[in-house]
Amino acid sequence: MKKFTNSNQLFKQVKEVIPYASQTFSKSFYQYIKGEAPLFATEAKGAYIYDVDGNRYIDMINGLLPVVLGYQYKAVDDAIKAQLKKGIIFSLPSLLEYELAKLLKKHIPSAEMSRFGKNGSDATSGAIRVARAVTGRDYIAVCGYHGWHDWYIGSTTRNLGVPESTRKMTYKFEYNNIQSLEALFKKYPKKIAAVILEPENYEPPKDNFLKKVVDVAHKNGALAVFDEVITGFRWDLGGAQKYYGVTPDLSSFGKSMANGMPISALVGKRKYMEKVNDIFYSFTAGGEALSLAAAIATIKEMEKKPVIKKLWTLGGLLKNGVKNLVKTHNLEDVIGMKGQAPWQIFSFHEANGFSDLEIKTYVQQEMLQAGVLWYGSHNMSYAHSPNDVKFLIKTYDKVFGNLRNLLDQKTLRKNIKGGLITNIFKVR
Ligand code: PMP
């Protein structure tokens, strides 16, 4: 039995000085079974992460997706160390910026020009400001998650602190429902500056949806923005736009581009990116050199090694394995598995009087006990091995079997040893 004594003890202390004891909702205690989960990490290497109680896990979260090659990946860490000897940040731009911009241009169809940021939110917000500047319009159509800034988060249930005037400028449309986007343009004629969407999350695009989105945006005088913070450097080195062959006007990249170092990129067609000269998109750490060096090393490693291919093949094996087990254990109404191989997402549905969260919490409890850091997705990394996948499938087989029995016997709740996972925020 894994114990979480130190995690629970430290949580009490840390939350006294750090709100919810984490910098990120998705890494915090909200995501975990209360009292029966690791809450703080000490180190990670390859595909494995260690918690403050000395427990080891296969990490299926990978820092919320940035860790695409694996923790402590030598080629990237060496590039960071080499750069550290030259300097972390300078008073003038370094040529690393030029080198990275050229690499992005080589791989990403829309990336005629690039500017860098630190978080994905820097890049999405930059794209929105460019689109507003180009079109002279204020409204935005959104589909997916696009970061923590006012213009987007105002459209979600977590909109506390966002002025109403801002909230009134952002409207959602539905993925794979082009009519829902057309309806927004009809309702707000000549008001929408940009259509921004995750090119893919749960569902694959149907009926040429991505191309239709770009066309509808253009027909109505708006810019089309692909938010590739997750799909970038996973679906393809050139993102989902390369994978699906649809080129947007602007795009945001982040997460996987530097194997964990904090960097993002606002990229796009020259005629729009030149507008960055006129707007305010400027911050102290934009050209921070360790992250630039890490991004260059990460992309070059992906050029040399079959990283993307492995995310698809190994991730595909895992996804199919889980889907088969769901069938075998007669859980098709209870557990869903969506997304593409490089980023797979579970869904849970109430069954036999037990809620989706009860079922998810039970599965998490069992996965943690088996040594898998798990919060309901498979964020694949190049460091995951075929043996890891075999182990995961074997573990799911056991957990799903037990779950089926507990649902049938109506004894699931009694077998959940901690408090339920909290569903604080859901936009996808
Ligand atoms: N867009 C998408 C699609 C994302 O998944 C995220 C982060 N989860 C963001 C934007 C925001 O990135 P960040 O948290 O780095 O600001």
Report on the structure:
The chain is an alpha/beta fold and 428 residues long. The chain folds into two domains: 5-71 and 307-415, Aspartate Aminotransferase, domain 1 (Alpha-Beta Complex); 89-287, Type I PLP-dependent aspartate aminotransferase-like (Major domain) (Aspartate Aminotransferase, domain 2, 3-Layer(aba) Sandwich), CATH 3.40.640.10. Helices cover 39% and strands 15% of the residues. It is built from 14 helices and 14 strands. It has helices at 5-17, 74-84, 95-107, 120-135, 150-153, 164-167, 178-187, 209-219, 239-244, 270-273, 289-304, 307-328, 356-370, 386-408, and strands at residues 41-45, 48-51, 56-59, 113-117, 139-143, 170-172, 192-197, 223-227, 250-253, 264-268, 335-340, 343-348, 372-373, 377-379. The strands form three sheets. A seven-stranded mixed β-sheet has the order 4-10-9-8-7-5-6, sandwiched between helices. Strand 7, helix 8 and strand 8 form a beta-alpha-beta unit. Helix 2 (74-84) runs antiparallel to helix 11, helix 3 runs parallel beside helix 11 and helix 12 runs parallel beside helix 14. The longest helix is centred in the C-terminal third of the chain and has 23 residues, at 386-408. The radius of gyration is 22 Å and the shape is globular. The two termini are 34 Å apart. The mean pLDDT is 98. Bound molecules: 4'-deoxy-4'-aminopyridoxal-5'-phosphate.
